[in-house]
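Q: Structure for this?
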Amino acid sequence: MLNTKVTMTVRQPAVGTSIIDIQGDITGASEEALMVAYEEASKDGTKSIILNFSDLDYMNSSGIGLLVTMLIRTQRQKQSLRAYGLSEHYRQIFELTRLNEAIGIFESEAAAEAAAH
Amino acid sequence: MNESQQEKKVPRNAASWAKPVDKMELGEVPAEAMNLNVKGRRPTSPLQGFGQMWQKTYRIRLEDVTVTPQAVISEWKAHFPEFWPEGNNFYGPLQGVEPGEVALLNMGLPGGAKLSTGVRVIYADDESFSFMTPEGHMFAAFITFSAYDDSGVTVIQIQALVRASDPLIEMTFRLGFGHKQEDGFWFDTLRNLAARFGSHGQEPTLNTVCVDKKVQWSQAGNIWRSAAIRSAIYTPVYFTKRLFRRA
């Protein structure tokens, strides 16, 4: 059953690049929603996936675990994973969990897209 | 950004997260503890480990008692060391499991030897809490302890997202006894916690997923910080000090 507290929509601003817009809460219950979004984002030979956290309301430590497993999936597929829209609070969480060493963090969508090309 | 936008940016569980640190610091520990391999170490996640990455989910269902998930977590946080299997020590702060706290662990080994390492609490709320491990710990891991309601039954869960830190520990996993020891540890922990609420006879279950089959050779150098090796080297000193304390 999908976690209805989170909505993830996928768009492709450029060939080979997908953006997953995240709205709501990321918890352990978000696994199916995240994987469905990832599958959609990975269609058509996508090499760069960007996570938009601008409308993220809540994330607990189980949510961080999901991001780690998603990161591994992108690495297996030789895709890059980047993020933007993180508030100061979530930047600190990425630093706390050392996710910032593996997921590039950018100030804006434009900056994340530019890094992808 | 206006005030309501600022408010939106601070999530409701902001206080449940620890602040990032470069190095772990430890408070006072009992004199009898082996105090090694924690102070000054960086916290590590599974991304900094060497071995294959596993997601291991241990669960026990409290079919025979009525207790809320929140009550389970409250008791677990307040009395965490008491549920550990005998022979293993968790030296944590007296106030219990709180974000940012660091605990010293002395894991029991055959012959009375100890392995000294630690954990840091990175998250704690009413329904779950999570640890990160320091450099040198056997596992580079996120470990999350939680409880939830499943159709009227409270389920207690421990989920570890883990890589063996170094090639030595990875070998124990590949040979099987590393996994077996870890699984037995958490099964006993769950049984002990369930018994606190009067639940007996329920057997824990394990669901294992290999998240990443590849090892990270770039992290092989983690062995230089191995808590297992350093504890073994220190053990004669530790036993000598204990002898003089008793004299």
